[in-house]
Automatic annotation (TrEMBL):
Domain N-acetyltransferase: from-to ranges: 1-85
UniProt xrefs under PROSITE patterns: GNAT (PS51186)
UniProt organism field: Listeria aquatica FSL S10-1188
Keywords noted in UniProt: Acyltransferase, Transferase
The name this protein goes by in its record: Putative acetyltransferase
Record SUPFAM superfamilies: Acyl-CoA N-acyltransferases (Nat) (SSF55729)
Length: 85
């Protein structure tokens, strides 16, 4: 297994890829499949996770809103990304 994802109604809830498979195109291939087959068009990213933000931006997502707290009310700023292509 190289990783796993979880999604619900157009929203990617989680995407984990083993570090040894990063930078080889697997993540992009998986994400594009989810976009095409599952209609994924939204994802949330922690503000400090610059690598994730760059990955999603490379794949056509852009920030459309922000939150000062995460879904559990903790003080972790969140970027809400939306597919724009």
């Amino acid at each position: 297994m190289i990783g796993f994802t979880g999604h619900a109604v157009k929203r990617l809830e989680m995407f984990f890829l083993s570090p040894r498979f990063r930078g080889k195109g697997y993540g992009t291939a998986i994400l594009q499949e989810l976009i095409e087959k599952e209609g994924i068009s939204f994802v949330d990213v922690n503000l400090q996770n610059e690598a994730a933000r760059k990955f999603y931006e490379k794949n056509g997502f852009r920030v459309h809103a922000t939150s000062e707290k995460d879904g559990q009310g903790r003080p972790y700023p969140i970027l809400h990304l939306k597919l724009t292509k």
